[in-house]
């Protein structure tokens, strides 16, 4: 059992280090896009399935409430929280439309859409990305493995190149937290200032 614990932490740590070695610049670019959208009066729309749905809600909460510093709320929306919308769209149309319908109703040019899929192949997430792009939103993708179709269809892609879904999700959460902190620094802190 102790071996399992040690192996898990070692494998997760390797995946984290591999991501930062390969994609730190891309992560900073994503933060700059999100900060720019907020600065220009736009919002971030976040969506995914399962654990990625929970990530969408978690990240929206960090932007609207606060992350680490006191600052004004930032406009963020998770498309995974309204069970009436999700079930009515899935029932009347199809599960593949649950994000598309909401983006049609709520997405505007100048917003940014962050799509999360550990496989990069979730049909409803890909459909949401396509709708967001057609409406003039900037699209970001957070995926795993080889990135799947999601990595090819978004404007900027962050891919955790591993095979274990739970460990990909662990790195996704770290990425989401770093994005929140970077956005706060870009918008609210003077250059060189750090809040710890």
| Span of the ends, CA to CA | 35 Å
Overall number of structural domains: 1
Number of strands: 5
Which overall shape is indicated by the principal axes computed on the Cα atoms? globular
Number of discrete helical segments: 7
Strand content: 5-15%
Report the CATH architecture: 3-Layer(aba) Sandwich
What's the SSE pattern? Answer: HEHEHHEHEHEH
Classify the fold: give the CATH topology. Rossmann fold
Largest sheet: 5 strands, parallel
The CATH first-level class comes to Alpha Beta
| Class computed from helices, strands and strand pairing | alpha/beta
Overall mean pLDDT:
96
Q: Which ranges are low-confidence, i.e. pLDDT below 50, for 5 or more consecutive residues?
A: none
If strands are numbered along the chain, what order do they take across the biggest sheet? 2-1-3-4-5
Summarize the SSE layout with pairings.
Layout: H1 2-39, E1 44-47, H2 51-64, E2 76-78, H3 83-92, H4 98-106, E3 112-117, H5 123-134, E4 138-144, H6 148-153, E5 156-160, H7 165-188
Parallel strand pairs: 1-2, 1-3, 3-4, 4-5
Descriptive notes:
The protein is an alpha/beta fold. The protein has one domain: 3-Layer(aba) Sandwich (Rossmann fold), CATH 3.40.50. The chain has helices at 2-39, 51-64, 83-92, 98-106, 123-134, 148-153, 165-188, and strands at residues 44-47, 76-78, 112-117, 138-144, 156-160. The longest helix has 38 residues, at 2-39. The N and C termini lie far apart (35 Å).
Please describe the structure with a list of short key phrases separated by commas or semicolons.
single chain, 196 residues, alpha/beta, Rossmann fold, five-stranded parallel sheet
């Amino acid at each position: 059992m102790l071996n399992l614990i040690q192996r898990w932490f070692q494998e997760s740590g390797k995946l984290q280090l591999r991501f930062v070695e390969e994609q730190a610049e891309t992560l900073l670019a994503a933060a700059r896009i999100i900060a720019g959208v907020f600065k220009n009066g736009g919002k971030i729309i976040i969506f995914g399935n399962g654990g990625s749905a929970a990530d969408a809600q978690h990240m929206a909460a960090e932007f609207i409430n606060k992350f680490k510093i006191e600052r004004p709320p930032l406009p963020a929306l998770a498309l995974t929280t309204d069970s009436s919308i999700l079930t009515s769209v899935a029932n009347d149309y199809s599960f593949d439309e649950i994000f598309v319908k909401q983006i049609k109703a709520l997405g505007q040019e100048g917003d940014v859409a962050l799509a999360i899929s550990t496989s990069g192949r979730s049909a409803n997430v890909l459909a949401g990305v396509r709708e967001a792009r057609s409406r003039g939103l900037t699209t970001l993708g957070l995926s795993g493995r080889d990135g799947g179709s999601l990595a090819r269809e978004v404007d900027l892609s962050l891919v955790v190149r591993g095979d274990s879904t739970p460990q990909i999700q662990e790195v996704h959460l770290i990425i989401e937290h770093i994005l929140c902190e970077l956005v706060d620094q870009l918008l609210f802190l003077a250059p060189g200032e750090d809040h710890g």
